[in-house]
Amino acid sequence: NAGVTQTPKFRILKIGQSMTLQCAQDMNHNYMYWYRQDPGMGLKLIYYSVGAGITDKGEVPNGYNVSRSTTEDFPLRLELAAPSQTSVYFCASSPSVDGYTFGSGTRLTVV
Amino acid sequence: QKEVEQNSGPLSVPEGAIASLNCTYSDRGSQSFFWYRQYSGKSPELIMSIYSNGDKEDGRFTAQLNKASQYVSLLIRDSQPSDSATYLCAVNAASGGSYIPTFGRGTSLIVHP
């Protein structure tokens, strides 16, 4: 059982470049989330989805976009990378309002 | 603004002692409460959830919830060096029909032999 799979694990982007962080879960969870974690700052919610075709902004959505065309996949898009987006990104899923299962994370550096 | 507050620590305890981690929250409408453990460089892992006032025990872990005082705590009995990690408190509150957790910044726990 793979759980929540995130790719890539590491990435270096140049300012202005774009990329998509992939997230897939095989637990048939309706709820999926994207968080970023900066050192000492805890987890900040970027976007979330309560089901296929439904997404909503979290606390820090600027500079990001998401889509949820299937229950399994929830990709996060960075259109114009900025140094402020250097962070560790976690995708998570849950069956309802219960606790999350997190992916292993993507460490992104923007230079 | 929903807030979840934790002492950043580090909290240092000797092996075999009880570690006590505390968390306070601002939203009285919060419904569910979670503790996650995060080892350095790894993703958070759910270790406890609690939904009603009182204590909930799972092995060496006990979660305590007091909604009137708006705090939730985690006790770790017989602490082991392998318990050294950052512990994140998360609180679910309603947001536009969904329940979205707000995370605290975490408390760093160091268990020394």
List keywords for this structure.
heterodimer; A: 111 residues; mainly beta; 7-stranded mixed β-sheet; 4-stranded antiparallel β-sheet; B: 113 residues; 6-stranded mixed β-sheet; 5-stranded antiparallel β-sheet; 0% helix
What would you say this structure looks like, in words?
The complex is a heterodimer of chains A (111) and B (113). Chain A is built from no helices and eleven strands. Chain A has 111 residues and is mostly beta strands. Chain B is mainly beta and 113 residues long. In chain B, strands 2, 4, 5, 9, 10 and 11 form a six-stranded mixed beta sheet that branches. A five-stranded antiparallel beta sheet of chain B has the order 1-3-8-7-6, with no helix packed on it. In chain B, a hairpin with a 2-residue loop joins strand 9 and strand 10 (98-103). Chain B is globular and about 45 Å long. Chain A binds chain B through residues 31, 35, 40-43, 45, 48, 50, 56, 58, 90, 97-105, and chain B through 8, 31-32, 34, 36, 42-46, 49, 88, 90, 92, 96, 98-101, 103-106.
Assembly state of the chains shown: heterodimer
Our estimate of the beta-strand percent of chain B is over 45%
Strand content of chain A: over 45%
Overall mean confidence score, pLDDT of chain A: 94
Helix content of chain B: under 10%
What is the number of helical segments of chain B per DSSP (H or I, 4+ residues)?
A: 0
Average pLDDT taken over every residue of chain B: 93
Tell me, what's the shape of chain B?
globular
The span between the termini of chain A is 36 Å
Major sheet summary line of chain A: 7 strands, mixed
Radius of gyration of chain B: 14 Å
Q: Largest interface here, residues on each chain?
A: A-B, 21 and 23 residues
By secondary-structure content and strand pairing, the structural class of chain B works out as mainly beta
Beta strand count of chain B: 11
Largest sheet of chain B: 6 strands, mixed
Poorly predicted ranges of chain A: none
Radius of gyration of chain A: 13 Å
SS-derived structural category of chain A: mainly beta
> Approximately how much helix is present in the residues of chain A?
under 10%
Task: Name the shape of chain A in a single word.
Answer: globular
**Terminal residue distance of chain B:** 40 Å
